[in-house]
Amino acid sequence: MMAQPNVAEQESFQALLEGFYNQVSGCDSLQKIREKAWDQFLELGLPTRETEVYRYIRLHNLFSQSFALSDDSMAKDVLLQSYIYPECAKSFLVFVNGHYRPELSNTEALPKQVVISTLHQATKTYGAFLNNQWAKAMKEETDSFALLNAALHRDGAFVYIPPKTIVSAPLQILHVIDPQNRAMLVMPRLHFFVGAQAQATFLSTQTHLSTETTTCFNKVVECAIEEDAHVQYLQIGMGQSEKSWAFDAFRATLKRNSTLKTVCTTDGSATTRYDYRIGLAGENAEALLNGVWMLAEKKEAHNHILMDHQAPHCRSLQLYKGVLNDISRSSFEGKILVRQAAQKTEAFQLNNNLLLSDAAIAYSKPNLEIFADDVKASHGSTVGQLDKEQLFYMKARGFSELEAKNLLIHAFCQEVVDKISIPSVQQHVSEFAQRYVIR
Questions:
Q1: Number of independent structural domains in the chain
Q2: pLDDT (tens digit, 9 = 90+) per residue, 382-429?
Q3: pTM above 0.90, yes or no
Q4: H/E element holding 351?
Q5: Contact between 310 and 316 (Cβ < 8 Å)
Q6: Of 428, 433, 435, which Cα lies nearest the Cα of 413?
Q7: CA 419, chain centre distance (Å)
Q8: Residue 435 CA, distance from chain mean position
Q9: In whole angstroms, what separates CA 290 from the centre of its chain?
Q10: Does residue 183 fall inside a structural domain?
């Protein structure tokens, strides 16, 4: 049976969080947002064993930890450019321990009209629509960790792509985590606002400078996509620390004729949880969500998706694949919600899992909730093993068993990997899949 947090552990962890809230409260222009988020968090509470969307997460292991609230210092001299993909050499933002560091970032390749600032600055210059976006997001938020991020984050980033702006260079967001021998709570936050008829690609990556210290990485990204705008959001979570916890929330609202394409890849951590909530709010909007996880040893990866069809003639597609070895664990819980007004919806969802050991566990729960009567929707899930006949066929033609397994795993993952639009990133993930069993 999965270890669950007891009342004393929850109370102790919540008291720790309250101390952090008192530490950051009243120190900046975001105080009203912090207060609202904290009040909502207190009303909702920390997840428990009865919280449906957290039932596969070993919360006991998290709540028994003691964390410090992160600062923005790096103890080591780090060559940041070595963590930047070639296509993003002059278009990257750097976060250190959850804090946006403009002086370490480089935006030379971006059009001059693109605005990038701290959230504190943005509330003064772009306060009207930022506050409206944030207030709406807070009203709809039901995840405890996302609310904690809003209450406790220190200095996030705001990215504004003006209408009709085509951003040809992908913008990499590099999260550098340097715990300096402390168990740390890291709270990065980003707000993207992509104007009408604009186009942009965002790439989120992490690097852990130490793998020996426990960290809790709790990130939130809010993305507003205006009419006829097109956005790609790529997350590469490879090489995470085995001692790290990661809660990663992505929220997006799509207006008429806009598109969103996401690809998320990870090799897991102590626990990695991706939580996506996509609102198709305008007619003819389209969202394509893709993910692949390749887990080994005791690593875990969990995906929770809500695809909310609110307007007619919208389309969505979810394709998620998992490969699990040793005693790793994963879960996929995806819901397609089609509201009554969302006639002519087309929505599809598929989760495929490949188990390489008898001890690996993959939970899968795709589901539909439909209130409209003119809809095309389907969902599916599979859990299986490598095909023995295919292995025999390849070994009979000279491949070793290891080579044959890696080729079959690579082919299984490649359908998702091919959707990564940045060549060097695609190559990196593809090479990881090719030598997965060796790991």
A1: 1
A2: 999 999 899 998 989 999 988 899 999 999 999 999 999 999 999 999
A3: yes
A4: strand 345-355
A5: no
A6: 433
A7: 17
A8: 24
A9: 11
A10: yes
